[in-house]
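Session log. Operator J.P. requested a structure for one protein chain; no other inputs attached. Running the standard single-chain path with token output.
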Amino acid sequence: MKTLSVKIMQYSLLSGAFIAGKPDADAQVIYVDVEPDQVMDEPWEFFGIDLNDNDNYDFVFANVTFQDVFTFWNSNVFLYRAEAGAFDNDQNAIAASTVYWGYYGGYTWFYPLAFQEGDTINNNLQFEEANNQRMAEYRYFYTFLLNHTGRGNWFPELTNHFLGIRVVGTDDSLHYGWVRCSVLDSANTLIVHDYAFETQPNHPIIAGSTESYVQINNPNTIQAIIYSFNNTVYIKMEELQFLQISITDLLGKVCYESEAEINQLAIPLTLPTGLYVIQLQSEKGVYQKKIWLTGK
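Structure written below.
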């Protein structure tokens, strides 16, 4: 059996923004590329993440494989399970759904959600603190009529999706993050690719993003349809208008500016993958929207 683990020493250099939960000007998203990817494809391999450098794992990922006997169904069963769990305290947690089973006195199973790139992870989600949450599970019954069954939000296979995590700071402030994972071979292989968390307390994070989330508070006063595909932004107005167009990253850096009289426009870009804010301004008002761009 192999044991996979990692200690990211740079965490000892983090500012008080995370350790003390202070939302200061240096607050940022901390990103870690797990290199090489941690592949758990053998029974009982596990990988742990220590986010605050206190020598305790905050989250653990495991390949669980075993054989058991289900007396209720009079059947032997072979089980593959990709698991994720929250550890260290009762505030660290994973965004998950739950299912209650009434057998044997009743118990609850926890199923981590699988987020797509661009989804928002924040306190509106249901977070669970259990340390044996089932990303994906496959059961093969030898003698029962139900020959096999699978369950979980990551079953049978998902690649490059994201777990939503919540981690507590030393002053009990809560921080949100993501872990990019893949589940293969009907829960027999679990891969951890990279992860990130927001140092600002109680601040949302965008799955896959390595920059702090910017909330748009300005009301839109003109009508527009804006969407993106790959690295091109498409704009459609209800009528011909002269527009000032700007696109900024989440740190406020201007990445694109132009002026045009349009009712439809396609803007090809060469920007890194990430979340951006587009603003249209005319004599009639302003329109803002967050957009996701994919690769240069």
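Operator note: The helical segments are 16-19.
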